[in-house]
Amino acid sequence: MPSAVNWFQIPVSDISRARAFYETICGLALQKMEGPPHMEMWAFPADRRSGEIGGHLVSGEGAVPSATGTVVFLNADPDLQVALDRVEGAGGRILMPKTPTTMDAGSFALIADSEGNTVGLHSLG
Q: What would the pLDDT profile of 49-76 be if each residue is shown by its tens digit?
């Protein structure tokens, strides 16, 4: 198995606000996905055929943001601090500042997104 993770989903209450938040901190454009009529989804760009792991924001029935539970870590390479510096201006909060990992595996931080989810950021740099 090349990776234990193959897709992630981040539940949101306000899809427009959440989309703006993630596009700002990640410095990328999310892509509209087709889905069930009662849900709206926007995907993080990823080439799944090349083994890249993708995921999406989802709004609608059953999509309930949470500050507890599983934490998704987003790739903030090459410099975590650049993404972290955008968090508060985009409507989020820094819960744990840039922190070195053990075993020389870069740095991570924890944030609260615009919807109240706890999300991790990680970079090797």
A: 898 999 999 999 999 999 999 999 999 9
Q: Global pTM?
A: 0.91
Domain 7-123: homologous superfamily in CATH: 2,3-Dihydroxybiphenyl 1,2-Dioxygenase, domain 1 (3.10.180.10)
Contacts of 40 (CB under 8 A, 6+ apart): 15, 58, 59, 60
Tokens 């924890």, residue located: 110
CB of 75 within 8 A of CB of 27? no
pLDDT tens per residue across span 18-37: 999 999 999 999 999 998 88
Domain spans in the chain, listed from the N-terminal domain onward: 7-123
Residues 44/49/53/57 CA torsion (nearest 10 deg): 30
Residues in a beta bridge with 112: 93, 118
If we measure between CA atoms, which residue out of 72, 53, 52, 85 comes closest to residue 115?
Answer: 72
Alpha helices in 46-123 (DSSP H): 80-87
